[in-house]
Amino acid sequence: MSIESVADGLPRCPWPGDDALYRHYHDREWGRPVTSDTRLFEKICLEGFQSGLSWITILRKRERFREVFHGFDIPKVAAMGETDIETLLQDPGIIRHRGKIAATINNAKRTLEIQREFGSLAAYVWRFETRPEHRPDDLSWENLRRLAQTEASVRLSKDLRKRGFNFVGPTTCYAFMQAMGLVNDHIEGCFCRGEVEAERNALERPR
């Protein structure tokens, strides 16, 4: 069941509520297919920072994350070191968690390896796109809210961890896949669902 927003009357997924920032993220970003390596890398990192927290907490700090991690420029993040970690641990504008900060730098280095092997992070990631036959028939909010991971997210998580990535469990990977458009999890009745599906149908998958 979609919920009509008090602010604009549009039927959308219930999870953004009437928070303006959250609504904008839901309407303009979430689920729309992404093939930019920078954006994909940023999302992998921020999903890792979200672990144990809510996404709105990360979203409100996203601009500061972008500032301190050089716009998530992959080579620049990979070049960061222990001095940078110590500096970031003093920054109240981000999540000050040593393990997650270190994981971001580590994951940048691992991403460079993926780019060398596959040509791009996008070409690697889109190999794990969820096939239509693996989607539930019931795309209601009640059903989708219980879907924490999928066969595809388990495979992606396992492969990333084998490659040395950190903070990339199956649930984190599924949230990443939902946000980056590898699956369309806008519920039936949400005004974004048809738009997202059209974008996915028109997308030329990276090779």
TrEMBL record:
SUPFAM superfamilies: DNA-glycosylase. The keyword Cell division does not apply. Zn(2+) binds at C13, H26, H186, C190. GO terms for biological process: base-excision repair. The keyword Cell membrane does not apply. This is DNA-3-methyladenine glycosylase I. PANTHER family: DNA-3-METHYLADENINE GLYCOSYLASE 1 (PTHR30037), DNA-3-METHYLADENINE GLYCOSYLASE I (PTHR30037:SF4). Keywords: Metal-binding, Zinc. One of its GO terms (molecular function) is DNA-3-methyladenine glycosylase activity.
